[in-house]
Amino acid sequence: MPRFGVILAAAGQSSRFEDANYKKPFAPLAGRPVWLHSAEKFTDRDDVKQVVVVVSPDDRQAFVEKFGANLAFMGITLAEGGATRAESVRNGLEKLADDIDVVAIHDAARPCIAPAWIDKVFAAGSRTGAAILAIPVVGTLKRVGPGNVITETVDRTGLWEAQTPQVFSRELLVKAFAAHRDGEATDEASLIERIGHPVTVVPGSPINLKITCREDLKLAEQALKALPKPKLGGPSHPFADGDLWR
Hints:
Blueprint: E1 4-10, E2 28-29, E3 32-33, H1 34-43, E4 48-55, H2 57-74, E5 76-80, H3 85-94, E6 102-107, H4 115-128, E7 130-136, E8 141-145, E9 149-154, E10 160-169, H5 170-179, H6 188-194, E11 200-203, H7 215-225
Helix pairs in contact: 5-6
């Protein structure tokens, strides 16, 4: 049985979130921070042997002070992010135990992931070495130039919007990072593509939304109501009282 390690990416700057009190992974959502909703989806799984949360160096001290009990209670490893997403994920990869053979990368700001979707992408990633959740693009796409003027209507045939988790064999992911040590990528699948390995797309769901702006929190709260309730571990759970990081 594959041994999965999960890297939760929470080191971004949240520049589009526009909140003076929170970065989006730490914002309150249904009584708990966004990142905790995401983490629980994986720590409750028997096939996940390790979860690593990657945070910005600027956030590390405050994160440990506020969430240290959660990290210990849930057995989560903490890593510091880098200047780019690729560097942050690489730092998380280096924190994984040697016996982890399949790695899943998930955006900490995607709290509405369902177990069934994780099951499917984990199975595909284990079988093929590289798989991601994604959804077909359904809207009309416009390329916009200077002055907010449309320059082109883009054919959406065959276009999919990538989501997370993105799941890869550890050996393949390490190889991809080694081949593009100085390169940047908006997701890990693009690094795998660059070394010529096919990436399988597993149909996801629009419910698996990524929180980008504050308005997304309202959508995410409604989406969470449609998902199975997480196990809080009883009254001793460090966030049973709904405490949040400001």
